[in-house]
Amino acid sequence: MPPPKDAWPLLLHGDEGFLVDDEARRTLRRWRQDLVSDFGYDQLDPATLTASRLRDAVLQAPFLDPHRVVSVRGIPPRRADALATGLREVPESTRLLLTVTGRLGQGSALVKAVTAANGRVTEHAPLRPRAMQDWVVKRAREYDLPPNAGALVARMARADLGVMDAELRKLAAYQAGGNQLDQAAITELVAGDRQEEIFRLTDNLLPRPTGQAWRVTANLLEREQPTTIAYRLARHLSLVLEVRARQDRGESLSTVQGAMREHPFVVQKAYEAAREVTAERLEAGLRALLTYEWEVKSGQIDAEWGLQVALAKL
Predict the structure, then answer these.
(1) What is the rounded CA–CA span in Å between residue 222 and residue 211?
(2) Are 181 and 145 in contact (CB under 8 A)?
(3) Which CATH architecture fits 10-123?
(4) Which of 14, 155, 169, 270 could serve as 243's disulfide partner, Cβ 3.0–4.6 Å?
């Protein structure tokens, strides 16, 4: 899909903050290309901005540049409508970008003001699993990565666009250094490789810990801090608990995969684990990990030894 035609003022909002920030960066880079001086760009602080201050910045005429670029990024949703009166007049010579850290309703005064000024309002909602996978694959192509890189990152990394983009940029930097980016290299480089081991650890902890669980833990400890392992395990157990609740409501695997943001493979692993354990046991495991975190932070136990004890309680 081609990028939307440039229009200003431009208001970006929505619950998918990464996409809001990404479009804002691309837009500002494009708008600032023709500027010849620093006077042409005005970045306003949303924390102290008032409607009158915004109006003054918007109405200011260009000095040395063909146009002015004014940006206000990170407006809290609760303060957005108070800025609407600052947009009663937006000259063609001012390209205005506004971003909000959350979603605005259709009745928002700021949304109406931007629309009335012949601008564009774009909402970036969280992507569903399939759309997220398509986004990662497309992003991988933009970085000139091998065809399988996007699919691997989508499967292995956490279901967070910022995390996935960071992994893709890491792969691109590795490739730019003259290294061959085959599947083995991608698996080693992507942080999500640890996710596969978290799956194996969970499989060997539930419903009761096995000897293999300690071998997987030892392998993880060679590369990660004990508290990081505990955090990642707690996140996965929370996911398994949520999936277990859906199973108890009679939802099938495909239904659960369609309803959750995590990659379908991650949901499948959680679905399989949830079949073997009760919700009470999962809740007890989460409490054990929470207690472990508190005891480490308060200096009561050694982090590595304490992790072994916490896992035994699962």
Answers:
(1) 18
(2) yes
(3) 3-Layer(aba) Sandwich (3.40)
(4) 270
Torsion on CA atoms 60, 63, 67, 72, rounded to nearest 10: -50
Residues with Cβ within 8 Å of 14's Cβ and at least 6 positions away in sequence, in order, are 20, 102, 103, 122, 123, 124, 125
Give the pLDDT band of residue 195 (cuts 50, 70, 90).
Answer: low
72 within 8 A of 44, measured Cβ to Cβ: yes
Amino acid at 148: N
Kindly report the CATH class assigned to 193-313. Answer: mainly alpha
Where do the structural domains in the chain lie, given as residue ranges? 10-123, 129-189, 193-313
pLDDT digits (tens, 9 = 90+) for 244-262: 999 999 999 999 988 887 7
Burial (CB < 10 A; 0-12, 13-18, 19+), residue 182, is exposed
Token pair listed for 24: 């804002």
For residue 62, the 8-state DSSP code is: P
Alpha helices (H) in the chain, listed in sequence order: 17-31, 51-59, 77-80, 109-116, 129-142, 147-156, 161-176, 183-189, 193-205, 211-221, 226-248, 253-259, 264-274, 279-297, 303-313
- For residue 9, cis peptide bond before it (omega within 30 degrees of 0): yes
- Residue 65, φ and ψ in degrees, nearest 5: -100, 160
Instruction: Count CA atoms within 13 Å of residue 101 on its CB side.
Output: 9
Nearest Cα neighbor of 52 from 18, 20, 85, 5 is: 85
Chain-centre distance for alpha carbon 103 = 16
What is the total residue count of the chain?
A: 314
Separation of alpha carbons 188 and 193, rounded Å: 7
CA distance readout (Å), 6 to 35, 58, 75, 293: 17, 18, 21, 49
Asked if pLDDT for residue 121 goes beyond 90, the answer is yes
Confidence of residue 2 (pLDDT cuts 50, 70, 90): very low
Question: Hey, which residues does 130 pair with through a beta bridge?
Answer: none
